[in-house]
Each structure stands twice: as C-alpha cells, then as structure tokens.
Design a protein that fits this description.
The protein has 225 residues and is mostly helical. It has a domain of 86 residues: Multidrug-efflux Transporter Regulator, Chain: A, Domain 2, CATH 1.10.1660. It is built from 11 helices and 6 strands. The strands form 2 sheets. A 3-stranded antiparallel beta sheet has the order 1-3-2. Helix 1 crosses helix 2 and helix 1 packs across helix 3. The chain is flat, with a radius of gyration of 20 Å. The N and C termini lie far apart (59 Å).
C-alpha cells in the first residue's frame, strides 16, 4: 500500500515546519488531500511536491513563480519532471528517519527536562511535530545525540539553543554550496546527475572542516587551561 501521512507526519518527512505546510496548503501550492471523515491524508505525491517547492526556493524562485509553474503543470507532467528536478528531489539529501514518540517515551529520553517550554522550543525549531497524542521527531540521530548530551549534564534548553544556532549557520553553509553549484556546475549538466556527484564531496568537505575546527577549538581551550 502507498504510504500516507497526516499533515504533521508530512511536515516531518519533508523536514519543514508544520506551519509552512499549512501555508503552502492555503496558497494552493499543495493539491487537496484525501479525506477520511475529518482526517486529511497526504501521500508521496504531496511529499514530492514539498521537496520540489523547497528545491525551487533554493534556486531563487519566488512562491508566486512556483505557483505559476505548478498551475502550468497541473494538466500534464508534474512540475518536478517538467523542470528536470524529479531525480534530484526524489531522494532527500539527508538520510534521517523520523521517530514517533508518546509523551512517556519522550520523558524516557529527557526525564524531567521534557518540559512544556523545551517541547515548545523543539516545535518552533522544527525538531518536533505533533500528530494526535504523539510527537514525531524529525531525526533519530538528532534525538539520540541530544538525549546523550543531556545525560552528560548539558541542560536540554542549552542543547536546543545550540541546535537553533547551528541550524542558522548550516543553512548559510548549504546556501554557499548551492551558489557554487549554480554558478559553476548546474548550468552545463543535468541537475540530478550533478547532485549525485556533489553529494559525497560536500559531505567530505563539511566533515573534514568540522573536524579541523574542533581540533583548533580544543587546542585553544587547552592553551587557556
């Protein structure tokens, strides 16, 4: 059977805030969901559409222009196929798997630090989405690493604050690589093939630079000590 999502699950799978999905839905950038009583169900086509919108925004398109492209493609091929984005966006860059959690399970990860304020912050950052009585975390690796940091004695509020700051910096880093690719690679090659070639290279560069940065920071900390 085809995978179906509630809106919160769709947002988590696409890696975007729930309010963004609602906004796209209101702007008619997403087709109507399948309704079962009062429950709206979204499928892989909706997920692909969200990834297409994200990809177009990253390439400098406005929401108005994207809406026009979508409208032009409604009677024929999907806009991702029309623009040659289907191969590039069918598989997300990340390999993160969402985790569904009951409130009790969340408490198992973070004990008494699973407070209303911390949950609200995680929702605002986009780490969590709400699905009925459950919570959906966007990444098992982030969830388990955050829990481990809390067990090391770092308050969850500080972990979340660091995550917010890190996301801002990494968004800028991702935009830097996109600009390089747009200027020097994408104009003369297929988008899907280019992303397949660049994906491991970008990961290697980021991992190597982060390791070198940690070496420098640790040396400075040892010198101060």
């Amino acid at each position: 059977m085809a995978t179906e999502y509630r809106m919160e699950e769709l947002a988590a799978a696409a890696g975007i805030p729930l309010r963004t999905v609602r906004f796209y839905r209101e702007r008619k950038l997403l087709p109507p969901p399948r309704r079962e009583g009062r429950i709206a169900w979204y499928d892989e086509h909706h997920l692909a559409r969200l990834r297409t919108i994200t990809g177009l925004l990253a390439r400098g398109h406005t929401l108005g222009g994207i809406a026009q492209l979508l409208a032009a493609a409604e009677s024929g091929r999907d806009v991702a196929e029309v623009l040659g984005l289907d191969a590039a966006l069918a598989t997300p860059w990340s390999e993160e798997s969402p985790v569904r959690l009951t409130p009790e399970a969340m408490a198992d990860y973070f004990a008494d630090q699973a407070t209303a304020d911390n949950l609200a912050t995680a929702l605002d950052i986009g780490y969590l989405a709400v699905d009925g009585d459950d919570l959906v975390h966007i990444s098992r690796r982030l969830l388990e690493a955050s829990s481990a940091l809390v067990r090391e004695g770092i308050p969850l509020a500080d972990v979340l604050a660091s995550g917010r700051a890190m996301r801002t910096r990494l968004d800028s880093l991702a935009a830097l690589f996109i600009d390089l690719a747009r200027a020097h690679v994408l104009p003369d090659t297929d988008l899907g093939e280019a992303i397949a070639r660049l994906r491991p290279l970008v990961r290697d560069i980021v991992e190597a630079e982060l390791a070198l940065a940690m070496d420098r920071a640790l040396r400075e900390e040892l010198d101060r000590a």
